[in-house]
Amino acid sequence: MAEKQILYYRSMKQENYIGRLVSKYGKLAVERNMVFRYFVAKSMTYAQSSFFSDYFAGFVEDDELQEGLSQLGHKTLFELAYDMQFLIAVKDRKTNGVFFTPGYIVDYMISTLSPACGSCIIDPCCGCGAFLLGAADYMVRRYGKTYRRVITENVYGMDILPDNVFRSKLLLALLAYENGEMITLEDMKNIRCGNSLEARWSKSFDFVVGNPPYVRPQNMSAGTRNILHEKFSLSGNLYHTFYELAYRLLHEGGRLSYISPNDFLARGAGGTLRKFLETKLHAYIVVDFRDEMIFSAQVCTAIIFAEKGARADLRVAAIGQGVTPKQFLQNLCFSKIGEGEMDAHEWTLYDNRVKENLKKIKHAGVTLSSILDAKCGLSTGCNDVFVFSVHHEDAYYFYFMHEGSMNKVEKGVVLPVQKVSKVIRKNAGVRKKLMVIFPYRKVGRKYQSVTASEMSDVYPACYEYLAKHRGDLERVCRREDGVPFFAYGRRQSLDFVKDGFFFQSYARMPNFTMNTCTGSLFYNGKFLSLKPNAASLSELGNPDNIDVLQKVLNSCVMQYYIRHSSSYIPGGYYYYSIKTLKAFAFPCLTKKRCTSDSPVGWRRRHESFLVAQIRIG
User: What strands, in cross-sheet order, belong to the sheet with 282-293?
Assistant: First the structure.
């Protein structure tokens, strides 16, 4: 199993174990026994500290719980802090996008920022205090200041969860105490509880650092969405907004370092953030971990350094295969992207050789956009209700099981449909007949949904079935006034597919699969089809050569192109966006070359031909 998967499952095991302890003993008991065990491991007593004397007031050591905590084996303060994140309720972690940052990441980010002796540094989403600990420790070791001075003069933080704020203070006090200093709550008044998106600070800062929350719009509270709409220009995932917040917190010339999802580097939805990092906060370093997992969450990340001030060339580094994140940070190799080289569509974070190869591929000849149309599948909004496998049929009805009961719908309101993931897995031919309820009729060249009265009168069995699930349909799809409750979430791909290729948004390697059933709709994927004039532009646009076109789409050249042009998710899955695919080009192939070889021969010889013609280095 890959190291990143081992890391993920080990973290999940630890999270589940601590969760069971919390369920049995309570959150406060687990936390205090954790801290007490750390005191014992470090041969420290807390009687001399007013902070810890108050914290442990009334505390009674629980032998059974201590035995359970012994399995965690905390040897460093960061190990203790890491496990404290699992004391946060799962709901709060999901709502607020809480992920604790490993110590080696924190150390790299702080040391690269290199704050001066008098710098003020803030983490506006401090969680349990990883960056506060890292910043305080760095400044004490670099400048010989006391922890008390650093915490009162240099380090600031805020978090929306009161428990997080207290644990940040607890860990800072513990950091100082194990280094021979005692601090009080009054010393840590710069660590505040509140919503950073609404808070007002009386000063600007030299540095903003942190791991901003990753929360998709659908998982945000209504209050958070309103704040973003009213007060910020960057929306989408919540971490986008925290870049704009950093811009407001910094004074001119101030610098930022965030570790955040890297999907914005190449995804269309990240365009506004990329522009912001080119025109407002000027990014000057990007360290991309690609699909290597840093956190227990299944999210890919990058470290971004940016400055509120003069624009500079962007230095980039991307992790290679077989290298751990820690090894990567210890041996970074940067390439430079000049101001004129930035692409509004994506940031290509590779060396000049790779960028030159991508340029050659895009200008190799005929682009896919010139001979192929692309579209996404049906978007019913509730496939579980609309799509079914036929159990049996008679002259008038299809019968199918749903939620443990047999249902029937009229044949006149149903069409065959293909699920792309099943087609690609090559088992489409052995499945039961798959159908979709299709509440539309074609008027001219457009489709209109049938009315509720027409559905009720003409297709009463179907209407009765859909009415039973009206609550589900209305909950998952927002419809305009006058649109029946059974209309699809989006009105797209309502025509039958013809000759072409199915593919999925995320795949480890190209797997464009030829459609063999032209009289159906499709969902759960995307589709490429030949344009009417394709044959006049290229031999590969000739329907007779569609099998050769499939081999080009599934070639090593396409694999290279996607791996270096697209975003990705953990597990080695790359994003096959329609926009990226349209820019792919291939050299002209003669009719003789398209028809001369067997499939095996084509794969063996003509992939080499493509590489040679495009001159990939």
Answer: 191-193, 155-159, 121-123, 205-210, 250-261, 300-307, 282-293, 314-318, 335-337
Cα–Cα distance for residue pair 391/393, rounded to 1 Å: 7
448 neighbors 440 (Cβ within 8 angstroms) = yes
Q: How far apart are CA 125 and CA 113, in angstroms?
A: 18
Which residue has better confidence, 108 or 565? Answer: 108
pLDDT band at 7 (very low <50, low <70, confident <90, very high): very low
**410: which DSSP letter?**
E
Close Cβ partners of 181 (under 8 Å, ≥ 6 residues apart): 146, 147, 148
Give percent of the chain above pLDDT 90: 54
Cβ-Cβ contacts under 8 Å for 617 (sequence gap 6 or more): 353, 356, 357
| 108: its two tokens | 């790299």
Q: Tokens 């050569």 correspond to what residue?
A: 545
| SS3 state of residue 303 | strand
pTM over 0.90: no
When pLDDT is cut at 50, 70 and 90, the band that residue 516 belongs to is confident
Q: Tens digits of per-residue pLDDT, 151-204? A: 999 999 999 999 999 999 999 999 999 999 999 999 999 999 999 999 988 899
Whether the per-residue pLDDT at 8 is higher than 70: the answer is no
Q: What is the pLDDT of residue 538?
A: 81
Q: Is 283 helix (H, G, I), strand (E, B) or coil?
A: strand
Those residues whose C-beta lies under 8 Å from the C-beta of residue 437, and which sit 6 or more positions away, are: 385, 386, 387, 388, 409, 413, 414, 462, 466, 486
The answer to whether 382 and 489 have CB atoms below 8 angstroms apart is: yes
Q: Which string of b and e fits 536-561 if b means at least 16 CB within 10 Å? A: ebbbbbbeebbebbbbbbbbebbebb
d(CA 36, CA 53): 12
Instruction: Please give the pLDDT value at position 413.
Output: 96
Among candidates 527, 313, 330, which has minimal Cα distance to 420? 527
Q: What is the DSSP code (8-state) at residue 389? A: E
Distances in Å between the Cα of 591 and the Cα atoms of 9, 166, 548, 604 are 52, 72, 11, 18
Check residue 77 and report its DSSP letter. Answer: H
Q: What does each C-alpha distance from 11 to 4, 287, 502 come to in angstroms? A: 11, 23, 36
| Residue 597 pLDDT level (bands cut at 50, 70, 90) | low
C-alpha angle 123/219/222, rounded to 5°? 90
H or E stretch covering 356:
helix 352-362
Measured CA to CA, the distance from residue 126 to residue 213 in angstroms comes to 10
Q: How far is CA 289 from CA 114, 292, 319, 336, in A?
A: 22, 6, 5, 17
C-alpha distances (whole Å) from 400 to each of 433, 465, 573, 611 are 11, 11, 34, 50
CB–CB of 397/409 below 8 Å? yes
Range list of β-strands (E), 543-609: 568-569, 573-575, 585-586
Transcribe 49-67 into DSSP letters.
-HHHHHHTTT----HHHHH
- Describe the strand order of the beta sheet including 573-575 as a list of residue ranges: 506-507, 573-575, 568-569
Q: What is the pLDDT of residues 218-227, one digit of tens each?
A: 778 888 888 8
- Asked whether residue 263 carries a pLDDT value surpassing 90, the answer given is no
Measured distance CA(144)–CA(132) in Å, rounded = 17
